[in-house]
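Quick start: read one record
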Amino acid sequence: MTVTRLTSAELRAGADELASLLTDTVEGGASIGFLAPLGHAAAVAWWRERADAVSAGHHAVWVARAGGRLLGTVALAFPDKPNSRHRAELVKLMVHRDGRGQGVGRTLLATAETAAAAAGITLLHLDTETGSPAESLYLSAGWTRIGAIPDYAAAPSGELRPTTIFYKRPGAHTDGT
């Protein structure tokens, strides 16, 4: 498996393939901000909109591939306010249903954490659907659970679900040292 960071031009050029990943993730029930059914054209448009944020330095997007096939993606969103440039939000960690259980999510997560630390980011945060497989991944990767908010977002089915908030200090040891 190879993981690469996309430029804005690469993101635009790959929007169709990334849209297929996004629609697969939503069809698989992952609560990543979209309701089912998510049309391919809407998913392409969403990815193309991210290209401007990448170009401006407000987003960094990585993709994981194996055998030339797109298996997953993750992004970091960087705040633009002067008092928050030390932190970033981990967003849209997606793994194609065919790639799950192969370490793709863990590899993408580690890539984003390492890149954040290298960029001087000292605090990462995220939210994920409570009780989801993603929640277990973050816990096992040393993220700290802050708490849950009830009825935070609609699952792809439209049902309101709670979300769990996590944070992590990139580069910090998980044993507190």
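The two ends are 31 Å apart (CA to CA).
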